[in-house]
Fold:
Amino acid sequence: MITRTPRIALLASVVALSAVACGTAPSATGEASTAAQAQFAMASATTPPFSTSGSFAVLANTAVTCTDATIIGDVGVSPGSAIAQTNCPVTGTLHPNDAAATRAYAAFLVAYDAVAAMPCDQVLTTLDGLTLAPGTYCFDAAATSTGGVLTLDGPATGSWIFKVGTLGTGALTATNFSVVTPAGTPPACGNVTWWTAEAVTLTDSQFVGNVLSGAAVTLTRGTFAGNAHSKAGVTITGDAVTGCNMGTTPGGGTCDEGEDEDDCECREDDGEHDDDRDDDRDSHEGSESSSHEKRESKQDKHHGRCDDDGKKGHGEKNDRRGNR
Structure:
């Protein structure tokens, strides 16, 4: 293992995202040495800014092909539009090159470049049998595991970032690979990020983490707890994919990067109101009045009234400041 001196962090305004526990994984097959645990002890890494791409369990540039598998979360493709399902139920929304997929793919590219710019705390040559504290770990080239167990040991707020191919080329390839905590349970999927210069190929693995892939993602059997985002296509066969719902509003809508959460929720409500107005045009005058009252009630709920420009009312914000 080669040690690199940590550089000054390049990302001062990275969005902090809540971790979501996802998926299941088998118990670790053995204990990692205390020497390895001490060797890799370091400060927590910063969680990457997934922003509007965070609600997509699967996001691809060209196509998504899913066979004999399950996906929990949204599926999107942009600028391509092909989403092929064969015995593949999706608990979420399909976005074949629509506005949501376009925004999400653009946000994915921003996150991909942001992680690429992060400095490395340590350079690894293997993933197998290691116990790692939170940090940013890098592979100069490819990373391969066969039957290995990676143990992530740290606080619930810890963040682990793995970068594969930092010198320009390198793929992540794993078979019968597991990501666990010291207790043998899976870590929170929102705490783990995998960035690759090239493809990601996982077979019969109990994988945890959000993948930002520079090439195709191929998931075959096993479980995948996280989001699979690719600059090429995503192919899923016999795998159970459970996405991480990151960077979303409490109501499930997606926020633009850097947007205030309150303003974002107002914007999402405005979209719903527009749909309601279309329905109201064909309804009776009395129903129209009822719908109007309902819309006002939704705007006031939890966050106060929204201004005409979709921003949170300043009076309500000032009230909150006065109550502190």
